[in-house]
Amino acid sequence: MKPGRLLALICLLLAGSAAAQAIAYTVQVVAVSDQSQAFSLIRELGVDGYPAYATRATTEQGDVVRVRVGGFANRAAALLYADTMPDFPAAGNRPLPALADNIPPGVMPFEPRLLVDEAVTELTLLDWPDQLAVEFPAAAGEPHTYRLVKDGAAVDFRAWLAWPDEDGLVLRFRDQPLWPEEWAELDADALQREQNAQLDFIAAHLQVDADRLEAAVSERDGRPVLVVLERFNPWLSLDVGQLLAVSVSAAEAEGSLTAQLLGTEAPSPELDVLAELHSDLPVTELETDQWLLRFDDPFMVQSVPGGSRTWRAAVGAPLWTDGTFVLARHQGRLLIYDFVERR
Questions:
Q1: What's domain 3-111's architecture?
Q2: Model pTM?
């Protein structure tokens, strides 16, 4: 940004422009009473590629100029950005996330929103209609954790295998405990009654032979379980679903769940894996119709097609994008963002 344009923008803000659109969060670098000091710091930040601006506020100590950087769609993105910035204007003065107001429309055309921040070495992205689906690796003998992300919200659930069904629902194989949560407080006779009642209910619901159902029971973490196939809506409830079938070979749940079922024909889930990501190497550039990202350690520098400006938009080394979501790596963590266009 040219110095003349920068000063004009600052003056507009200090005059209390009502044209700026409010965003959820920003990063506050410092608040000073000396306006010239604030302008000098904004120039310094601008040279380093930080999208800096200023607002004026009246406090008990008098009028101050707040030097801030960027706009972020959620606090997680602002906090990570602030943690990665150096101290300004002197050692020990840490940038901090803050609720945003009066952010100029041109500072950052897109608001980064941090959706996933996990200390994992790899994950799998799945083709899931109308939302982002992430499958995290699991230890041997343990079900996977799935995370669905939609409209900035996320929901996690566990399953041996899960895939999308019609109308936004999900099909999954999961463990169905046959003892209640307070099982440790019950004696052996009470536990057996609980197990029998569960098995009778499931056998009647699926119209299957109770003896075959009994043979499908296995033990997990000291409790008897059945591996069931159910249809559910994870956005409404993680615990309530439509029971469809029971796996005959619960002990082989991870490897052959669709082989033998009681109560229904086995489905044929086809998980279209978009990417299995475990590389430490960032790509040179990621480009969509709306923006371009390149890596300038430790930030992703963003620009728009045909534009002359660039800005440090978010933290991380970019690895992949589908045009909406961006996967990046930072200090051994995998991050997933989307960028919300400011309107």
A1: 2-Layer Sandwich (3.30)
A2: 0.79
